[in-house]
Design brief:
By secondary structure, the protein is mostly helical. The chain contains 23 helices and 3 strands. Strands 2-1-3 form a 3-stranded antiparallel beta sheet. About 4% of the residues have low confidence.
C-alpha cells in the first residue's frame, strides 16, 4: 500500500515526532507541549528554532487548528502513523544515502531528508551535511522561486544549520549564502520564503564579521527595508528583527537610513512593534539617523506613546531615541513636550531600570531647557 507522506509541519521541531498536543511559543513557532516544556524546564529561555530570547515565563498557547489537522489526517490515513514508526530506525542510513546522491535540481523527499537531519542537530549531522556538499544544493534552491515548496525546505534546512553555532554561520557565509538568501527576500505573495530568508539573515548576523559582510551586500538592507515597507505582518516582523541585529554594527545604521528604513519603522512602531522601536533607537545613534528621524512623519507622537504604554525595553529605547532626536532641535523638543513626554520623564526618572532612569532624567532636563528657550 502506498503511504502518503506525513506533512513536515505535523512533526515537532524538537522531537521530530508527530505532535499530539501542539502549542505555540511566543516566538510564533509551534512545538509538541511535552518537548517544549522539557526544554523550558531545563532552564532554557530562548526559542529552540530561532535562538531569540523568550519572556521570563513563556506562555504556551494551544494550537487547536493544527491539532485538528493532525487528528483528521491520521484518522483518514492510519497507515501513516505505523509507517512513520516502522521507518524511524532507518532514517540515519536513508539520510546518508540521500545526501550522497543529492544534486541540483533536487526533489521534495531529498530536501525533506536534509531538513530532518538539520533539525536533528549535533556535530555528526552538521558534519554529514557539510561533507556531502549539501549546503551548496540548499543554497541554489533557496534562490529558486519557481518551486516555492523546495525553496521553503531549503531555507528551513539552512536556518537549522545556522543554529549549530558561530562556526556554522561563518561557514555558510563563506559558502556563498548571502546572495541566494537575499534573492529569496523578494519572493511573491503567499510564499513564506521571504520571512524565512529574513530569519536566516538574523541568525547569520549574530556573528560580528557576518554583520559587516551582509550589510556590505548592495541589496541586503534595501530588500529588508522593502519587506518592512510592503510585507505582511510576519515578513515585517522578521525584517525588523534582521535590521535590529544588523544595525548593531555602526556602518549598517547609515546603510539602513539611506535605504529609507526610518518611515516604515515609525509606521511599524505605531502598529505596536517593539522591535521597530529598538531599531529606531539604534538608528538615532548616527547623525544620518537623527536627521531622518527628525523629518519622519509622526515620529515624536509614536515614541511618546511607547514611553507612555510600552514595555520596559521599548520605553528605554524610545527615551534614548527622543533624547537624541530632540537634542539641537527645539521644534522636536516642543513637540515632545506637547505630547506629554516631559511629565512622563518626571515619573520615569525614578524607574528601577538604570538606563530608563538615566534617559528619562537627561530627556527631562533637555525638554525643560527647551521650554525656557535654551534650544535653538
Amino acid at each position: 500500500m502506498e503511504v502518503e507522506e506525513l506533512p513536515e509541519d505535523f512533526r515537532c521541531p524538537i522531537s521530530l515526532e508527530v505532535m499530539t498536543d501542539p502549542v505555540i511559543l511566543s516566538s510564533g513557532h509551534t512545538f509538541d507541549r511535552a518537548s517544549i516544556q522539557r526544554w523550558l524546564d531545563s532552564g532554557n529561555r530562548t526559542c529552540p528554532l530561532t535562538k531569540l530570547p523568550l519572556p521570563p515565563s513563556p506562555s504556551l498557547i494551544p494550537n487547536h487548528a493544527l491539532r485538528s489537522l493532525i487528528s483528521n489526517f491520521l484518522a483518514h490515513r492510519p497507515v501513516v502513523a505505523a509507517a512513520a514508526v516502522a521507518t524511524a530506525a532507518s532514517h540515519g542510513a536513508d539520510d546518508a544515502v540521500i545526501l550522497a546522491r543529492l544534486s541540483f535540481p533536487s526533489d521534495r523527499p531529498s530536501l525533506a531528508a536534509v531538513l530532518r537531519l538539520a533539525q536533528r542537530g549535533g556535530l555528526a549531522a552538521h558534519s554529514l551535511v557539510a561533507d556531502t556538499g549539501a549546503a551548496s544544493v540548499l543554497l541554489r534552491h533557496a534562490a529558486a522561486p519557481d518551486r516555492p515548496d523546495l525553496q521553503n525546505l531549503a531555507l528551513r534546512a539552512l536556518l537549522h544549520l545556522s543554529l549549530e553555532g558561530d562556526d556554522a554561520r561563518v561557514g555558510l557565509v563563506a559558502e556563498g549564502a548571502i546572495d541566494p538568501v537575499v534573492a529569496a527576500l523578494r519572493s511573491g505573495p503567499g510564499c513564506t520564503a521571504a520571512a524565512l530568508a529574513a530569519t536566516l539573515l538574523t541568525s547569520l548576523a549574530v556573528v560580528e564579521v557576518n554583520k559587516a559582510t551582509i550589510g556590505a551586500h548592495p541589496a541586503a538592507i534595501p530588500r529588508l527595508v522593502a519587506l518592512l515597507q510592503d510585507g505582511d505582518v510576519r515578513e515585517r516582523r522578521e525584517a525588523a528583527t534582521a535590521l535590529y541585529e544588523l544595525c548593531k554594527f555602526a556602518e549598517n545604521r547609515r546603510r539602513a537610513v539611506r535605504a529609507g528604513a526610518v518611515q516604515p519603522l515609525v509606521r511599524f512602531a505605531r502598529d505596536g512593534s517593539e522591535r521597530a522601536v529598538r531599531v529606531l533607537g539604534l538608528l538615532s545613534k548616527c547623525l544620518e539617523g537623527k536627521e531622518a528621524m527628525r523629518k519622519a512623519v509622526g515620529l515624536v507622537g509614536v515614541m511618546a506613546e511607547v514611553v507612555r504604554a510600552g514595555s520596559p525595553r521599548a520605553t528605554e529605547h524610545a527615551l534614548m531615541a527622543l533624547n537624541l532626536v530632540c537634542s539641537d532641535s527645539k521644534d522636536k523638543a516642543l513637540q515632545a513636550i506637547e505630547a506629554g513626554v516631559l511629565d512622563l520623564c518626571s515619573v520615569l526618572s525614578g524607574d528601577v531600570n538604570q538606563k530608563t532612569r538615566k534617559n528619562a532624567m537627561e530627556l527631562g532636563l533637555l525638554l525643560e531647557k527647551s521650554r525656557f528657550g535654551g534650544l535653538s
